[in-house]
Amino acid sequence: MRKISVAHSPDADDIFMYYAIKFGWVTPKDTLFENIADDIESLNQATLNGVYDICAISFALYPFVKDDYALLKTAVSFGNGYGPKLVKKKETKLKKNFKVALSGEYTTNGLLFRIAYPDARITYMNFLDIEQAVIDGTVDAGVLIHESILNYDDSLEVEREIWDIWQELAGKDLPLPLGGMCLRRSIPLNYAIDYENTLIKAVHVANKNKKILSDMLLERNLIRVDASTLDKYLDLYANDDSISLSELQYDALDKLYELGYKHGFYNSLVKSREFLIPSEYEELRNK
């Protein structure tokens, strides 16, 4: 039996979308998926170094790994009217060169922030430490991500929504691309198609059985939030729009990569549809 490493973050949406496989509800054909959980920027760095066969990444990372990894169509997270938040202490005014904590160099929120605030002094840290760093005054502000956007200290207030930055830069109403998954290109195509189909089915099954799966995750202490927060978070980032990329989501990805290229972060202009696994091969193979 083949063994394939599948890395995802320990965040509620990633765990929810993957654990239909972990619990045995969906089984890859003749393959054992070995899952690894790590924070998203660590996964971005690991993908740059080719560590895992299948890996969750920030969408902003993908142009840097496109030659070695194909973009998967499933297990995606987009914001739609919401997303990461730039927070500061209440009743404070940020200077032009304010010191800010971001969760990683290759995160989507990091890319959009750097475009919007070119003079800010950036320090990178684990996203779990950002809120406290702002409270302690280690930094003037910080971008909160994941579950942190739902519950943060009363001493803090939102300076700006990354969603608003995205809408201004995009120039039209598009969902905010946050995270997805990629697969190593050296994996034979027929296997790659099977693996992607397995993940698509897992996300579909998870969404169809949301209450059961959520209860199982909570009972096993696999989630770091309570039931109410989990429901809110999954409604935002693990839902029917996570099962398979839509045309609107492809357009949003292309706009993100266009912005990154325009502002000098990428060396070439990436069109997301050109970097997918050619799943049509399966239809031709079966004829």
From TrEMBL:
Catalytic activity: cyclic dehypoxanthinylfutalosinate = 1,4-dihydroxy-6-naphthoate + dihydroxyacetone
Gene3D superfamilies: Periplasmic binding protein-like II (3.40.190.10)
Active site: H146 (proton acceptor)
Keywords: Lyase, Menaquinone biosynthesis
Domain of life: Bacteria
GO molecular function: carbon-carbon lyase activity
InterPro entries: Menaquinone_biosynth (IPR003773), MqnD (IPR030869)
Metabolic or biological pathway: Quinol/quinone metabolism; menaquinone biosynthesis
Matching Pfam families: VitK2_biosynth
Record keyword Lyase present: yes
Entry's Gene Ontology BP terms: menaquinone biosynthetic process
EC number: 4.1.99.29
Family affiliation: Belongs to the MqnA/MqnD family. MqnD subfamily.
Function: Catalyzes the conversion of cyclic dehypoxanthine futalosine (cyclic DHFL) into 1,4-dihydroxy-6-naphthoate, a step in the biosynthesis of menaquinone (MK, vitamin K2).
PANTHER family cross-referenced by the UniProt entry: 1,4-DIHYDROXY-6-NAPHTOATE SYNTHASE
Protein name from the UniProt record: 1,4-dihydroxy-6-naphtoate synthase
Gene transcribed to yield this protein: mqnD
